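I have a small job for you when you get a moment. Can you supply me with one protein entry, sequence and fold together? It will help me judge whether the discrete encoding reads sensibly. Write everything out right here, beneath this request:
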Amino acid sequence: MLAGTALLAAALTACGGGSGGSGAGSGSGTAETKKKPDMAMSVNLTGDQAKPGEPVKVTLAEGKLSLVKVSDGKGGELPGKIADDGRTWTSERNASPGTDYKVEAQNTDSQSASARFRTAAADKVNKVTINPGKATAVVGVAQPVSIVFDNPVKNKAEVEKHLKVTTSNNTEGSWGWFKDYTGNDRVDWRPKDYWKSGTEVKVEMKLNGVDSGPGGGMFVKDYDTEFKIGKDRRLQVDLDTRTMTVTEDGQAVKSIPVSAGTPGGKKASWSGRMVLMTKEGTIRMDSQTVGLGDSYDKMVDYSMRVTWSGMYIHAAPWNAGYFGRANASSGCVGMSDSDAKDLFARAQVGDLVEVTGDGSKGKADIGNGYGEWNLSWDEWKAKSALAGAAQNG
């Protein structure tokens, strides 16, 4: 029996099998009641302030368990398994904070016992922001699964164990941890190679009852999302030729004269492999918000974000004289109104954006947008907390 647990005993009454005869209405026998021995059961969580964030464990003093059910009163149950010796049952998931639970158990002699407890509320609650969200049904081949946490996550390996990506074609991929552009902890799931068009993806985050670690708080709900991979579209910007080549399913469909960031300083464009993050349309762009003084403040059409720090692909009619001739923007990739309108209609969130050539300011930090495609597969896998735990173990 576990130390510090409450012992519950249920005395059950077994009813005799009815009449002694086999014919209907014989009624000549008298039913006997025999009291079976009490079933002694202990549960590791007790009272109305039980500690959340750990599994529920049910133990028999003697005999073997045949069935255990732990329900939360809201229609939910904690799944679990009976040990090989039949003496204990342990839930596969942790008890959630601020939740009433009922434990019902039965042994192989058909005796039963029950118990109730309530877990204490979480001192601090951690939440997540998920991308793609449920509203984003179709994304491009470079789109990772991205989870940003409100509070710090010290127990990264424990959290990662509760994250699962399922695909329709067994796509190989891995989680990787790093800091988001906001400074918050973030974990992304990236395929080994770009997604295949038509792949269906389901993400399950069974975080309810998982502890983030010191300073992070506990999760009090599960999360999930799903999406589908659309057309294989890639936007390839060559800084040397000032041209964007748009490919779809491996075939070039359009060549667009562009003017990218001015080389040699803060106004240069980022290079490397990035991802089209959002399609924001007409927005106000103010250079002061991205540390470029009073260089510009204007409404910009057909805007599509590439980094959190303010690199966009958009219409830039004021730079018409530079398209295909010189890189003279403040860091974005600009083009004519007509080309931008056409590209905005074609493009989807998650499309690959690749910038090559001279004059860039290098690759953006991995959390400044979706920069994981600039890492090799081995470099990316090494960012998994579980990979690190395996090496340290």
